[in-house]
Amino acid sequence: QVQLVESGGGLVQAGGSLGLTCAPSVRTSRLNPKGWYRQVPGKERQLVALILGDTVTEYAEAVKGRFTMSVDNAKNTMYLQMDNLKPEDKAGYYCYAVQIATPKNFEYWGQGIQVTVSS
């Protein structure tokens, strides 16, 4: 069974950087990295960055200019480079991927990884 495994979270001072990685636990065919979301306890999960179609990346307004999502489709791996982090970026971060299948595509979520930013 495939799982999305996240790494790279932790504690950083405001203005610092972190890089998150999300990769499947086993090689999986037709698994397409799609995006990153984050969630604060008591609030709904929110979009951070999303691949639209094959090439277009959409970012939440709050992270534009600071976060960069990239993918390595050969490895089914996605990355989130977070620069100039702010205390309000503190959240659990979740990667999201879709496996193309019939009759219905299958969705995968990472386990969540904590990012904490100190002021």
Order of helices and strands: EEEEEEEEEEE
Q: What low-confidence regions span 5 or more consecutive residues with pLDDT below 50? A: none
Please, what is the average pLDDT? 94
- Identify the overall geometry: globular
- The percent of residues in helical segments reads under 10%
Largest sheet: 7 strands, mixed
* Strand element count: 11
**Any idea what the radius of gyration is?**
14 Å
The number of helical elements comes to 0
Strand content: over 45%
- Given helix and strand content, the structural type is mainly beta
Terminal CA distance reads 40 Å
Describe the model.
The chain is mainly beta. 0% of the residues lie in helices and 55% in strands. It contains no helices and eleven strands. The protein has strands at residues 4-7, 10-13, 18-24, 31-39, 46-52, 56-59, 67-72, 77-82, 91-99, 106-109, 113-118. The strands form two sheets. Strands 2, 4, 5, 6, 9, 10 and 11 form a seven-stranded mixed beta sheet that branches. It is globular and about 45 Å long. It starts with a strand and ends with a strand. The relative contact order is 0.32.
Short summary of the structure?
By secondary structure, the protein is mostly beta strands.
List keywords for this structure.
119 residues, mainly beta, four-stranded antiparallel beta sheet
Spell out the blueprint of helices and strands.
Elements: E1 4-7, E2 10-13, E3 18-24, E4 31-39, E5 46-52, E6 56-59, E7 67-72, E8 77-82, E9 91-99, E10 106-109, E11 113-118
Parallel strand pairs: 2-11
Antiparallel strand pairs: 1-3, 3-8, 4-5, 4-9, 5-6, 7-8, 9-10, 9-11
